[in-house]
Amino acid sequence: MQDDAPKKPSRIQQRNRHLILDAALDVFSAHGYRGATLDQIAVAAGLSKPNILYYFTGKEDIHVTLLSQLMETWLDPLVELDATGDPMTELLDYVRRKLDMARDLPRESRLFAGEILQGAPRMHPHLVADLKPLFDEKCAVIQSWIDAGKLAQVDPRHLIFSIWSTTQHYADFDAQVQVLSDEDPIEGARRYLDMLFRRVLSV
User: Fold this and answer.
1) CA distances from 149 to 8, 50, 106, 160, 202 (A)
2) Is 56 left (phi over 0), alpha (psi -120 to 50) or beta?
3) Least buried of 1, 64, 172, 196, by fewest C-beta within 10 Å?
4) Measured between alpha carbons, how far is 97 from 187 in angstroms, rounded to an integer?
5) 29-80, pLDDT tens digit by residue?
6) Separation in Å, CA 60 to CA 72, 83, 122, 144, 162
7) Predicted local confidence at residue 8, as pLDDT
8) Which helix (H) or strand (E) holds 73?
9) Superfamily classification of domain 59-201
């Protein structure tokens, strides 16, 4: 009886896919989707262009794969916002987790920002199916804390937008931040954003 189950990729195939995706992350985050080419990705990966096309159908396939992998990672900090926790602690911890991502995943942040700036042509289904329900759920949690008198009267949606913009700035504008900072920018941001959001949210 013939086994129709797909074969597990070999170690070399797994290694090459990882090399391609890591190289593509460098190229896309530096040049954007439109400025990136398969030739650039091949050079960065140390593989031939035909070898790239053995694993992926083209540039868009690689880009979509990266974005799909990124989405779960990108949502994790918001998923961890606990409705049963102390509201101030939960929100300040969320700010810190987003800053950690800015420090540890700058390429991924720029990849995501580039896609959104183009109108999310490849990411839109994920935004609708994955991000929107989670976003609405967490906004409802924050509103429940506000209604209970545990936080100041703020718009939960704009609060989350503000957290995103103030934390991801340190990844997306890293070159500027490094020139203008007199200390470790993430450590400075931790202190400043903790103070900022604590003041905004305190009753």
Assistant:
1) 54, 61, 36, 19, 10
2) beta
3) 1
4) 13
5) 999 999 999 999 999 999 999 999 999 999 999 999 999 888 888 899 999 9
6) 19, 38, 9, 41, 31
7) 77
8) helix 59-79
9) Tetracycline Repressor, domain 2 (1.10.357.10)
Pair of tokens at residue 4:
């129709």
**How confident is the model over 149-170, as a mean pLDDT?**
97
Gap between the Cα atoms of 172 and 106, Å rounded:
7
Tell me the residue length of the chain: 203
Distance CA 56, CA 16 (A): 11
- 9-56 and 59-201 in the same fold: no
9-56 folds as Arc Repressor Mutant, subunit A (1.10.10)
Residue 60: CB atoms within 10 A of its CB come to 12
